[in-house]
Amino acid sequence: MKNEKNFVKQIVIFSIISLVSILLFNALLMPQLNKRSIKETNYSFFLNQLDEGNITQVKVEDSEIRFEVETDDGNKQVYSTGRMYDPELVDRLHSDKNINFTENFEENNLLLEFLISWVLPIIFFIVLWNVLMKGMTKKMGGNSMSFGKSNAKIYVKAQTGKTFEDVAGQDEAKEALVEIVDFLHNPNKYAEIGASLPKGALLVGPPGTGKTLLAQAVAGEANVPFFSISGSEFVEMFVGMGAAKVRDLFKQANEKAPCIVFIDEVDTIGKKRDGSLNGNDEREQTLNQLLTEMDGFDGKKGVVILAATNRPESLDPALLRPGRFDRRIPAELPDLAGREAILKVHAKKVKTEDNIDYNAIARATAGASGAELANIINEAALRAVRSGRKVVNQSDIEESVEVIIAGYQRKNAVISQKEKEIIAYHEIGHALVAAKQKDSAPVHKITIIPRTSGALGYTMQIDEGEKFLMTKDEALARIAVLTGGRSAEEIIFHSCTSGASNDIEQATKIARAMITRYGMSSKFDMIALETVANQYLGGDTSLACSAQTATQIDEEVNDIIKKSHEKAKKILTENIDKLHELAKFLLEKETITGEEFMGILNKKAVASL
Ligand code: ADP
Ligand code: ZN
Fold first, then answer.
1. How many other C-beta atoms are found inside a 10 Å radius of the C-beta of residue 319?
2. How many beta carbons lie within 10 A of that of residue 70, not counting itself?
3. Mean pLDDT lowest among 159-173, 357-371, 476-490
4. Cα(305)–Cα(202) distance, integer angstroms
């Protein structure tokens, strides 16, 4: 508990500073303040006043005498004078029955004095301490003053209100969670037989696949309280605070059992501990506390801990061992059916036309997460409102898919006729190469309306069904399609533009993966030359081969792309009439559908027979 010690140290230091300040204030400032209302005078004045009987109170101190004089008009004034050797003073004071010369000179003022010199400064310092701490807390984004209180929010059923019906797709995950729901419903059934359910389950998957939603649904289905906290909330400014929060969270949870504790982004605290010198003390302590708490509580009581992460490979193995998060529940990106179901779930929340083809939308959104699909429906509703309609229609959803993929239309972007022409040929180049290869997905839409993502136009291809595998031929065909844009520019304008940068990037990515990960190269056998680091977060790769091999990989990537490029150019040269005709048509219309495209392509073909 090194860090609670730190905290206590801070308090002690602050208290000492406050105390010293108060003492100094009293020693130096207070007398000064008091003196302002006390007039210095000489001993003879004191004696004169005494003789005249004007004095009402006297206080004799070691070195000074203070006395209060009441003037004729009833005003009172306190004077002070130095003390002289005066043995008869007491007798003299005593002889005047009006004089009160007790020790308690100005009794009520003493109380005031005490208030001013002690209580006020203490209050002042307490307020100062609070203000300081609040400022610090804000800066650190944490809750440093809550000192060991976790801010786990308690959601009771009425608040989450989510059930498994709200989670579309994710059938495997739901199946795994049903048992937990049952356990929470009647823990006795399990206790009787002596079984204890897993204490924790880890929801693993890319961002936005509904992990939080699943946890909420479990709480909703089981009708139990739902504690939700993000892993990052445990990471505190002071070492030890996170651990205190964990302790507090589990205390709360135990009181409310049966219940669900949901820890989002658990990788922020559950990262592998390493022995490095600059290790994060706070995080390790928090993790240790979490491990201890998970071991400590009674599995039969009905506290189930669900945690979510999209970096399972970075979690500490201790967290994953039996008795802790030993169950792993995958929440993968939805497949075609899943996407369709998710779209429908969210479309229920908005007013839509009856004849919406969700399957078509689902096919156009391969690789989209649940969150993205939810966003697409919402975008569509916003678009409907913008166009003054009361219900969402198919085109709203289709347009919002494109918004999510490529950004908003830049309607007022000024593009010269020459450039428009180049873009049109570029896009038709892609589409034509796609249409003329048997391993390519059909063209769905071609547009040359610029988008806010920077795309000046694009060709959308949509597969008929869901694809889980990619053959070598398909990969090569895909690369050829990507090089088709540049190829058209080269054939028609005998030059190239920067417009192909994105195509180049994508083509290179596929070609590299073919060689380094899919074993589709002619030189290397089934060797993993690259490993994927974060499979759920972008899938960055790192090379795992010698520099010499890396050179060979580069050569082979170049070979693959070169061959595809040649192939694309060949296709386009053979179909140059159609290239011209389609480009002209696209230039005129700006957006054409796959049917229009195929119509022109086939009409010509029939006519030329
Ligand atoms: P994660 O925690 O996996 O990052 P969330 O659970 O926060 O993702 O999901 C964000 C939003 O996406 C949800 O609130 C929900 O609207 C939507 N969503 C994600 N997956 C699904 C799903 N399978 N069914 C319905 N909605 C989903
Ligand atoms: Zn292109």
1. 23
2. 16
3. 159-173
4. 8
| Helix orientation angle between 547-574 and 417-435, rounded to the nearest 10 degrees | 100
CA of 456 to the centre of ligand 2 (A): 9
d(CA 566, CA 580): 19
Q: Which of 427, 489, 490, 530 is catalytic?
A: 427
pLDDT in tens, 81-127: 887 787 777 777 777 766 777 654 444 566 777 777 778 878 888 88
208-227 per-position pLDDT tens digit = 999 999 988 888 888 888 88
Q: How far apart are the first and last CA of the chain?
A: 86
Amino acid at 576: I
Query: What structural domains and CATH numbers belong to the chain?
Result: 2-112 (3.30.720.210), 153-274+281-330 (3.40.50.300), 336-406 (1.10.8.60), 417-608 (1.20.58.760)
Mutate to test the pocket of ligand 1, among 172, 209, 232 (most ligand atoms within 8 A of CB): 209
- Cα of 182 from ligand 2 centre, angstroms: 53
Structure confidence at residue 144 as a pLDDT band (50, 70, 90): very low
Its pTM stands at: 0.69
Distance of CA 146 to the CA centre of its chain: 21
Which residue in the block uniquely carries the two structure tokens 């009647």?
A: 186
| Alpha helix stretches (DSSP H) within 445-575 | 472-493, 501-516, 547-574
Cis peptide before 258 (omega within 30 of 0): yes
Residue reference for tokens 């359910």: 197
d(C-alpha 116, C-alpha 108), whole Å: 13
Is residue 406 within 8 A of residue 453, CB to CB? The reply is yes
Q: Which two tokens stand for residue 436?
A: 């003329």
148: left (phi over 0), alpha (psi -120 to 50) or beta: left
